[in-house]
Every structure is written in structure tokens, then in C-alpha cells.
Amino acid sequence: MEFVKILFWILLFTVVYTYIGYGLVLYLLVKLKRWFKRNNTKLSNTSYEPEVTLFIPAYNELDYVGQKMKNTMELDYPKDKLKIYWVTDGSNDGTHVKLKSYSNVEVFHNPERKGKINAMNRVMPLVKTPIVIFSDANTLLGKDSIKHIISCFSNPKVGCVSGEKRILNKDKDMASGAGEGLYWKYESTLKKWDAELYSVVGAAGELFAIRTELYNEVEQDTLLDDFVISLRVAQKGYTIQYNPEAFAVETASANIGEELKRKVRISAGGIQSVVRLRALLNIFKYKTLSFQYISHRVLRWTLTPLCLILLIPVMTILAYHEGMMAFGFYVILYWLQLLFYLLALLGWFLENKQTRLKILFIPYYFFIMNLSVVLGFFRYMNKSQSVNWERAKRAV
Do 201 and 295 touch, CB atoms closer than 8 A? Predict the structure, then answer.
């Protein structure tokens, strides 16, 4: 029984550290850094305005072309310094035809569909500006986003900058909107602290930028191109910074089913990325970056979901041994665990119901997040995840 207790504490520590503990440790480390360097604050230079390329990969995005281009034209950045590249490989809905009606856009189209990374690798050598900004076709950027994201590059140590992903929650958004919105608020806070401590560990594809010279061709079966591209920049000794004033807005997934589809793909890509970026696990070489990478990303995509699964039988054994109605320490934790999963079940039941108690969707969304990792693992092992775009349906 002692072995079971030791195993329980290891499993519990891993789960708590992954979702709560790392945030607390990160907060304390940032506070210490602020204290030691309180008179050495270096702000980004908002007057830094080099030529930039806004790079938009798109597959069958005809419905979004109009609003994306209107949004792009309204961005507050010198028009003579902003190049707009759309890459529409494989699109057969007229996306590339519609784009050719805009005089200030360069459209790169190949009728054959080989996936997003193949399209990016094909066109990136044609980018001549020192900074390239990647953005999704179905996201809208804040008016000053380019200015804010570019300002960070005035620091020569910065090789990549991630903007903030914001989820547009509407009253009719259900479990997907409530859960995804709260999740991204927490993620945004962690990213701010990660950047302040040293470096963000991965950029969001909705809006991020890199120094063009740091782009290296990415393997064509890569699932999380934004994550791999940004962390390979960090591997070269540059930092990934985070500027929440540069933001991209998109609606939540239409429902949990669509969100699960999206997260399973991300999870499969996350496991693939951990394998491909395994050099970053060397904490002796990458030091702080490795600590952040393992704590913020690797555990979520590998050990923690397994720990959650193992905690179910382990806590059952401990509670049974203590006496199910004795209300001892392990028994209380057992019933709390059971309550959590019952709340997740209630969230599933209420998914498509109108309710103001959106907090009920948090256990459900948390469950879906970890279920997606398990499903993503099997999809990765079976090599059944397509590299081609799999756009999740969004709420309207």
C-alpha cells in the first residue's frame, strides 16, 4: 500500500504542477526578476517600422476574403512598407480568383493540394522583407497589431513575436466558447510571464512574426507549423516574445465536437513536435528555455493526461483501503474526483442548452482537452493525421 501512496503523490504532483503549480512558480520567478532588475526595464521601440510581409496561407477561404482584406486595409502601418502575400494552394472555391481583384495583393496559387507547410516552404524564399508576419485567413487583427508586434523586433535578441489570440464570445456560445475563452485567458497570462522570464514556448498561428532570415524549411508532414517554426528560432539563441497588444480575434468553435476535432489534431502535432524538438529537453544546454518548454508544453502533451487516467484506479484503491464512508483524506479526494467528472458529464448534457452558469463548462472543457491528447497520441502512432488543412467549424 505504501507503493500505491507514493505513486498517488507522484501522479497528483504532476497534474497539479502542470495546470497550477507551474503558473505559481513562474509568477514567483517573474517577481524575483522584476525585483533584481527593477531599474533596468527595456521597452520596445514603437518607432521601429521596417518593411514587413503579411503572409496568409489559405485553403478554400472564399467566405473570409472580403472581411480579411477589409481588416488588412484598415491596419495602422505604412502602406508602402506592408506587403500582402496570400498562398492559396489547393483551393478550388475561387479564393485565388477573388484575391486577384485586389491590386495590392500578391497571390501564389498552386492547384495541387499538398498541405500548408508545403505551400509555406514554396513561397517563403520569395519573401524579401526583414520581418514576416503569419496570420490565418479567418482571423481579424487589431488595428495597431502590426505596429505592436514589429516594435518588439527593435531588440536584436528577439527572433519571434507572438500576438494574442482572443476568442470572441457571444451570448449564444455554449461549452466551446466558454471553455475556450477561459482557457485562452489563462494561457495569455502564462505567456506574458513566460516572455518576461525569458521566452514564450511556441507561437499561436493566428498571429506571429519572425525574422525572415531565421526561417528554415520545415518537414512537409509537420502538423503544428507555428509551434515548430517559432521554437526552432528559439533553438538558435533568440527569444520568442509576446505582445498582447498585437491580437487576432476569432470566434469559438461551433461546438465541442468541432473543438475536439481541432484539439486532437493539435495534440497529435504536439506529440510529433516533442519528438522532433527533443533536443530542447536538454536543460543543461537550453537552461531556462528547457524548463519553460517542459513545464508549459511537454507535460501537457505527454505525462499529465496519463497521470489523470492512472489517478482513477489509484485513488479508488486508496479510498477503499481507508474505508469509503470513513471520510479520511484519500476518501475525500476520491469523492472530489468523482464530483469533477460528474460536473464534466453535466457540462456535456448542457452543451447545447442556454445557461448563464458557464463555469459548469470548465470541467467539461478540461476533460475534452485531456481526452484530445489521448486520441491525438493514437492518431500520431497510427500516422493517420493528415497534414492538409482541417478547419474546424466556427460559431457564427
Answer: no
